[in-house]
Write a structure and sequence with these properties.
Residues 12-180 form the Metallo-beta-lactamase domain. By secondary structure, this protein is an alpha/beta fold. The chain has one domain (2-261): Metallo-beta-lactamase, Chain A (4-Layer Sandwich). 30% of the residues lie in helices and 25% in strands. The chain is built from nine helices and 14 strands. The chain has a seven-stranded mixed beta sheet. A seven-stranded mixed beta sheet has the order 7-8-9-10-11-12-13.
Length: 262
């Protein structure tokens, strides 16, 4: 079987794992190398079994620990070409790091087949659709202001979807953020709110998806309770019942979440 978890997830840092048959892929490394290594150890994951690191984009909450990690471990890094170029140009990875662009075609990585798809953010950014060695299919999409046709296509037919549920609209509008930042977050190149996420979750469940991981929750403008309540209300209104062949989990901010099997 295949498994997904987040080592940490939120506006302060993001890192996820897809594991199957003793091997795994890491998606982003948004906290320090030490924090990430400690979380891997807590989950019983050896660096030697890491087949690659998938990077969504160059914002610090997704790559903070990457440079130090790559100084000590020779693990290939995958992403869209614009992101990889930016990592090099801004010296966010060592010059000798192995960087492999995968946009536009599937890439086989240690038995996993990975396809990148663009997401709508304020820098070049992508999500990933991953087929595991045993045939399981999942996708992760965070840091997106709108669900584009490419995102809909990438999420179609997956058994597990890790989807951004970044902010609650009322919390954001009533909060202390300056107006320009609120506009940026709400824009088509910002982040996905709970209601937009819930609508997509409902569509995915009706299409046969069985597991949902709510990711990248804002510390200031959201809570796990709000995100989960919004999704559950949408599901109940559609006549479905959470917990009956449907698992929805909000990923923890500062510690590993429970494994989700798919």
């Amino acid at each position: 079987m295949a498994f997904f978890t987040s080592l940490y997830s939120g506006s302060s840092g993001n890192c996820s794992v897809v594991r199957c048959e003793g091997k795994y892929l890491l998606i982003d490394m948004g906290k320090s190398c030490r924090t990430t290594l400690n979380a891997l150890k807590e989950m019983g994951l050896a660096v030697a079994d890491m087949q690659g690191i998938l990077v969504t984009h160059e914002h610090s909450d997704h790559i903070q620990g990457l440079r130090v990690f790559l100084k000590h471990y020779n693990v290939p890094v995958y992403g869209c070409s614009a992101t990889l170029d930016n990592l090099l140009d801004m010296e966010l990875v060592p010059p000798a790091a192995e960087l492999i662009a995968i946009e536009g075609r599937p890439e086989e990585i240690g038995g996993f087949v990975v396809e990148a798809f663009p997401t709508s953010h304020d820098v070049p950014c992508c999500g990933y659709r991953i087929r595991t060695p045993d045939g399981g299919v999942m996708a992760i999409a965070t840091d997106l202001g709108v669900l584009t046709p490419q995102v809909h296509q990438a999420l179609a037919g997956v058994k597990l979807a890790a989807l951004e549920s970044n902010y609650d609209r009322n919390c954001l509008m009533m909060g202390s953020y300056p107006y320009h930042l609120k506009r940026r977050i709400q824009s088509d190149r910002g982040h996905l709110d709970n209601a937009e996420c819930a609508a997509k979750v409902l569509e995915l469940l009706q299409d046969g998806c069985e597991k949902i991981a709510l990711c990248h929750l804002s510390r200031e403008n959201n809570t796990p309770e709000l995100a989960l309540a919004t999704v559950r209300e949408a599901i109940l209104c559609a006549g479905l019942k959470p917990g009956e062949n449907v698992v929805i989990q909000a990923q923890k901010r500062n510690e590993p979440s429970d494994w989700m099997e798919f």
